Amino acid sequence: MISKTMEDAINKQINRELYSAYLYLGMSAYCESANLKGFAKWLRIQAKEEQDHALKFYDFIIARGGKISLGAIEATKTKWASTGKIFEEVYAHEQKVTGMINALVEMAAKEKDHASFEMLQWFVKEQVEEEENASAILAQINIVGDVPGHLFCLDHELGKRE
Ligand code: FEO
Fold first, then answer.
1. Which of 19, 63, 81, 146 is buried most deeply by CB count within 10 Å?
2. How far is the CA of 149 from the centre of ligand 1 (A)?
3. Total domain count, the chain
4. Separation of CA 147 and ligand 1 centre (Å)
């Protein structure tokens, strides 16, 4: 049985993962409107991954006999100044999420909750990948700069994500 403290903290993380999904879907919609279909596709797939993260936490609470509590999801903005600004935000957001996961790991260790600690290791690894992906795309955008032809090549590359 999961403790109330851990249950509350993981329920809060479900909300944050769903907010991440919302944020990336908002960015995807913006890229659609800017006719950057590849960026839009990449971000939409990322939004789906965030939903999967939320469900992984959701299933864990249920498996441990806890209670799911779904709060309101914060609205996101609808416009960004450039693809560079979008990926600066994605990278910063993922770093913030890493901090949240680390705080959960510390809580699980403090509570001697080995099941939560073990489940969270998946997220620790996932965050390494999440930060790496965001920072790599941001670096590519910075190399490409404002040259439209190059940006469209990058858009084409990002659209290959499955
Ligand atoms: Fe759920 Fe992008 O971390």
1. 19
2. 31
3. 1
4. 30
